Amino acid sequence: MTRFIHTSDWQLGMTLHFLSPESQARYSQARIDAVADIGRVAAERDCEFVVVCGDVFETSRVSRQVVARACEAMAAIPVPVLLLPGNHDPLDAGSVYTSDYFTARQPSNVRLLTGNDSERPVSGVEVLGAPWRSKRPLEDLLARACLDLAPDPTVLRILVGHGVVDSLDPDRDNPAQINGSQLEASLIARRVHYVALGDRHSTTNVGATGRLWYSGTQEVTDFDEVDPGNVLVVDLGLPTSDEPAGTVHVEPVGLGQWRFLRQRFELSDDTVGDLEQWLSALPDKQRTVVKFSLVGALTLAGYSRVQTVLDHYVDLLAGLQRWERHTELVVLPDVGELDELGLSGFAEQTLHQLVDEATAGDGNVVARDALALLHRLAGAR
Questions:
Q1: What is the C-alpha separation between 114 and 236, in angstroms, rounded?
Q2: Which of 127, 259, 266, 340 has the greatest number of CB atoms lying within 10 Å of its CB?
Q3: DSSP 8-state assignment for residue 178
Q4: Which CATH architecture has domain 2-254?
Q5: What backbone torsions phi and psi does residue 198 show, to the nearest 5 degrees?
């Protein structure tokens, strides 16, 4: 029996366009902190080694600082750490893994899965890697890694790969797509005992064997991810008379501290408070990014109140992003509230021009926001 951690897609050095510089710095640190947390889980759960299934780095052109901080975090993990090059950091001519600033700092417990030889991090365990050597492989790399394998009753064999399994995203034009049925056949025949995958950022059990998994990313990276922020603690045993297929137990352990949320708000003047209440109730605002859409019809006063709410929470949240493609908001100012502003001359002309632009067709977002700002400024006189 062996116990190990399966993780992937650390993508250290990742930058996100919707984060401010201050939020980006905290997000980058969180991804490094999650690596340190992997070491804590390994110690607490008596894991014997860690496999990282591709995309350790966001790119092979990450800064020296990112590499130095990554190496320091990995050096603190108290067990061997096996790294697989993926599509973001392939083992090509410009690979980060062959750069002077990685090789000079590579910790003694960190090994690279080059595909040339298997690794034996502990006695009785063989780890095979199917690394990416270019951005666009022309074959199923895991199928190639399994070609000459025969069952070995004396060793637990773990296959580490990266890419898309055909059952999750069939694409006949992708020569590197992973054949899931072939992998399951290798598992059933006990040529391999567990397949650890990376590339999919949501924790996912593939197929029927319970031995083919994506760990997902250690920290959320996008709004579409279903179950990110985990690592997998895997218990694996050899076949016995009582367990002819051998034992396997996979447990997701949550490490992620950040959340990316999508939310749709149906608004009227009477329900603007619901928007404010929802945002107010969010925990850990400094680690939460919200992408929102607004649907409904508001008076100018109601829309001005919405903008006041959003202006407040944009300062509290790690990110607050309007999802324009799914926003269908109509601003319908009535004559009374325009007259109450008491504008004249150029200011009045501007007001009516903004009203025309904000209420024409699909509405002009810039005009709508300018109209709300004018309403607030005029109302503050």
A1: 23
A2: 127
A3: B
A4: 4-Layer Sandwich (3.60)
A5: -130, 170
The tens digit of pLDDT for each residue in 348-357 reads 677 667 666 7
Per-residue CA distances from 313 to 86, 243, 282, 289 (Å): 37, 55, 10, 11
Which residues lie below 8 Å from residue 66, measured CB to CB, with a gap of 6+? Answer: 12, 13, 57
Could you state, in order of their start, the residue ranges of all structural domains in the chain?
2-254, 259-379
- Which stretch of DSSP H or E encloses residue 75? helix 64-75
Q: Specify the pLDDT at position 297.
A: 85
Q: How confident is the model at residue 60 (pLDDT cuts 50, 70, 90)?
A: very high
Rounded to two decimals, the pTM is 0.87
* Mean pLDDT, residues 238-248: 81
Nearest to 247, CA basis, from 260, 235, 258: 235
Find all residues with CB under 8 Å of 82, minimum gap 6, and list them. 49, 50, 51, 52, 111, 112, 113, 119, 121, 127, 129, 160
pLDDT 10s digits, 132-167:
999 999 999 999 999 889 988 899 999 999 999 999
Q: Which of 21, 12, 23 is nearest to 288 (CA)?
A: 23
Q: Are 36 and 72 in contact (CB under 8 A)?
A: no
